[in-house]
Amino acid sequence: MADTRNRWSVGAALVAMLLLPVAGGRASANDSTGFQGTGGIELTKTDAIEMRSEDLWIGLEEIRVSYVFRNVSDRPVETLVAFPLPDLDLSQGLTAPAWGFPKQADDFLDFRLWIDDRPVQPSLERRAVFQGRDVTVAVEAAGALGMTPWAPGAYDDYARKLDPAALARLREAGLIQTGEDDNNPQWTLRTRYFWTQIFPPGRDVRVRHVYRTFLGSALIDDVTKIDGREVVGRHVGEVDRKAAGGDRYCLDGAARRTLAAARAKQPSPAMPYGAAEIEYILTTARNWRGPIGRFHLTLDKGAPENILSLCWNGLTKTGPTTFESTIAGFVPDRDIRLLVFVRAKVP
């Protein structure tokens, strides 16, 4: 594992649960980008709800989060709780084989939720954004909001089912183009789950959710030049390296030497490692009372031969693949971003 200097870095793609008080009925919230650590739902801060604990488990296949909230006021608090899924820029030609998406048309992260150990089915909202404009009405009116990258040829197959006049209007507006991927949508799909939650006064409420990890990934070409950014691709746009502040994952000398040695032993063009980027957004979820009472983080790199690198202080190795950290009175001021070098399986 890389060194645990008290620094942070940047990665690719997961989001946190957010909390919104409701006064006099159901509240509204702005749309969230959620992806690449940008944006987030703009929520009203409340001093009535404390987050007593958060247990966060991040692995290559799954994210598991458990919260304990408490309403410290003397009356019930009704809130809107929202979970934004990562943005999907459909103009990038994303496909299921490339990124391992499940085939659900709505929920590509298989999001599951429990409140006080009881399963809850939240509401789902999907929106289409094109060049900074919300085009959901036009896309939905044409019957095209369900165009998602779940299988090769899916866009083309879906377009055949649309009314020809409606498809022509989408093309005229630049919302669908024909190119390398036929009938490729040009909008970004923004999806979020939300539900109304009542917090009784003076009682803990346990919230747990589980979902598939959304990975950025790339093959490593020249491991001797890995610096945590330059050779690691992102599947929905690049982030400027200079603006990001250089080394994004605190990749240390030992990790570099391990990668270089593996590359030297494996003949080209085979690559000894793939790189998986994971991001969990903490900074958008700071709208409760005070700090998080106890924050417990577990990272699982998946296999003993994999290499985990991130900028985080105080991680302790607790198993062949796991690293943990516990912080009392935690005030998140950065997001959790990590890089896992996954050892390729040689036939």
UniProtKB/TrEMBL annotation:
Q: Which domain of life is it from?
A: Bacteria
Record domain DUF4424: where: 29-339
Q: Which is an annotated Pfam family here?
A: DUF4424
Q: Which Gene3D superfamilies match?
A: 2.60.40.3680
Protein name according to UniProt: DUF4424 domain-containing protein
Which organism is this protein's natural source? Azospirillum lipoferum
